[in-house]
Design brief:
The chain has 310 residues and is an alpha+beta fold. The protein folds into 2 domains: 100 residues, Phosphorylase Kinase, domain 1, CATH 3.30.200.20; 189 residues, Aminoglycoside phosphotransferase (APH), C-terminal lobe (Aminoglycoside 3'-phosphotransferase, Chain: A, domain 2). The chain is built from 9 helices and 9 strands. The strands form 3 sheets. The chain has a 5-stranded antiparallel beta sheet, with helices on both faces. The radius of gyration is 20 Å and the shape is globular. The chain starts with a helix and ends with a helix.
Amino acid sequence: MAPLPEQFEPWLNRLEGFSNARVLSITPVDGGASNITCKVDLLGGSAPAVCLRMQRERGIFEPYDVVREGRVIRALAATGVPVPRLIASEPGGTALGAPFIVLEWVDAPHMGIAASPSFSAFTRAVVEIHRVDWQSNGMGFLGVPESPRAGILRELDIIAKRMPAFGCEKHPLLVAALERLRATAPDSGRLALCQGDINIFNYLFLGEEVVAVVDWEQARISDPRSDIGQLVSLSHLKGAPFGPAEAQPFVQAYGVAAGRSVTGMAYFRARWLFELGVIYHGWLRFNDSQPWYEWDHLADLLERSIAELA
């Protein structure tokens, strides 16, 4: 639920450039299951609007940490990845009942509704994220695994910890998939900054260019193929044929943009179909609606993907 203007305005007035600002309205942005996002329309501030991101207490990507997300965005400001400017961060819950961050409002539609988004520009933006020098830009606070394999196993542990709260900790298919994924986690790979959620709704476009990448709550240092696997899995759920993972269009496009082929994607497709299976149950637990994809379809894809893992 969005806060009332009279709740947020006194806090905002303490910031440089916003001492005389009046909050006209606070409107939730539809869609997504990330930290709660609102557009705050202003009068008399240094900007006509700002973005308010409030931390969720429960949800499919728990535990949430919006202040950590703000630190990621601040660090990325010095890189080639376009992100909204972080204006301020509030770790306490006194002002609005939960921690929050305030960002520049980027007046641009996401890739799903933009007039002329470029798939190539989207792909290049993902490649650019994976090229970020996270060490020089002070992003070690995300936690640096000992190896790419350790990073993958850490991702699996985070997902597994959600399963009891989602009521699926004993689901036979998900338990079997988790066991196989842990046993077959690849030793090869590299460590990179991963956004953790590269779906098209997090890429804002003006014309054919990406002008901002948003939703960094799941950012981590891990194997970048984990990010790629998300797009592959989502494409199958949206109807793309289940063929060789390396032959999928996004994998091929990413390889061209990165200047090197991408291998071992069968594992990361399975890893993301497993997470989407857990998310399915979490969605049912926390929402009054069905997920956009069907369980039977997901289960079939997950079984087929797990069978590929040696």
